[in-house]
Amino acid sequence: MQVAAWCLGAVTACSGRVDEREQWLVRVHTDFPVPRLGNRLLVEVLAEDGSALCSDCSRVFGAVEEGTFPLSFGVPRSAPRVRLRMRLHRTAALDAAGLPPVPSTIDRVVVLEGLGVGKQSIDVNLLTECIGVATDLPARKSCSRGAELSPEASLSAPEAPVANGSWSGAARVPCAGAEREDMSCIPGGAFLLGEPSAGLPPALDTSPEHLVQISPFRLDVRELTVGAARALLPKVPDITLEAKSEARPDCTYLGGTDSTHDGLPLNCLSRVQAQRLCAAAGKRLPTQAEWEYAASNTTAETPYPWGAAPPSCARAATGRAALYLYETGMDGDSSCRLDRGNALPAGPREASRAPCSLLDDCTEAGVRDLGGNVKEWVADAFSPYALGCWAKPGVLLDPRCEGGKNLTVRGASWVDVPSAGRSTARNEVTDDGFGVLVGARCAVDAR
């Protein structure tokens, strides 16, 4: 690309109008995992006040791939001082103005100084630890390291370049300790929590994305069943689970001595009860970051627990609400029951113990029913991803939101439409009541 006063682009593209011998050759290095977590670099030449120096003083390097970095471009040395802004982010994540959103972007401004003679090479590092740190253009501050703002660096001398793609937080960390029955290892790693979701109400919003580092843990292969809960109740005798009744016909628990529904997921329990039942088993509730990491197949970040295939009635336990014309029970979407000629019963289904098949609601790690059946309690209070505990710069290490008034449940239930089973789906719950749509799944640390 050619610009009247500046040439921002591949150096070879500048040769027609600018003497290659009179320019800064900028080499950008990053330890960020590209292209998985970032595949687009926006470069801008700025005026002293932080505005664009000219209408064409920017360039987008799209389709960044592994091996692209170090990425080089030339800036003509036609002025003694140039402010250069670089933003590395994922293409899919742009805000309403079409710009990279701060929480999932590495944003740095540097100063190129000195007219000199000849070509001058400059190395610039974009570090993962600076993700989510908002540049302050008026104050002339951006992040060069340490997840905090510092004065814009004058690069009259090259920086020592980092090894490209070398951020240690992206490494896959295996589970430690012995395997546990009916639990699956979720190895540690890093991923972008959430997804762009413009237009959704706050209780459903999954944006902006945040870079999260997860330690290894183990997750129950199946949701907490009625049978498992009945076996744990002697350890927590003060808990009274709500049983199925005329007033609550969709509750799966039938009483302490009735094993009829032992294979069904337990519902009609509060988060406190879920926490105590998990604790009685020597486990805990997963955080919502852990839950989403497992549901999206860890670093693969698939849109559904089973992968990228669109949802269907044959896969997840959704669209199974009662038909109020002749049935009683929870209202909602009945499309999957109607699709099968009402052969499917209303309500959640029993947890399968067969090996996972390609047509199951099952992750690569063998975790079942994250895309339907019952929604699941997680350990976090609810907070919009743009606010509160999520509004922190840098990489979020094993985040957990606490202290909020409202709570969080993840996943879809049997009364939801099939598309509700996205790996990123979450809901805000306004109390700790006994919801018939909500169950639980337990986790343990495996560091």
Biggest sheet features: 5 strands, mixed
Main-sheet strand order equals 3-2-5-6-10
- Helix proportion range: under 10%
Give the number of DSSP strands.
20
How would you describe this protein?
The protein is mostly beta strands and 447 residues long. The protein folds into 2 domains: 11-154, no CATH class; 171-447, paralog of FGE (formylglycine-generating enzyme) (Alpha-Beta Complex), CATH 3.90.1580. It has 4 helices and 20 strands. It has helices at 226-232, 271-280, 288-295, 335-339; strands at residues 23-30, 40-46, 58-61, 71-76, 81-89, 106-113, 120-126, 141-142, 150-151, 153-154, 183-186, 189-193, 210-214, 217-220, 375-381, 396-397, 407-410, 426-429, 438-439, 443-445. It has a 5-stranded mixed beta sheet with strand order 3-2-5-6-10, with no helix packed on it. A 4-stranded mixed beta sheet has the order 18-17-15-19. Strands 4-1-7 form a 3-stranded mixed beta sheet, with no helix packed on it. Strand 8 (141-142) and strand 9 form a beta hairpin. It is elongated and about 90 Å long. It starts with 22 loop residues before the first strand and ends with a strand.
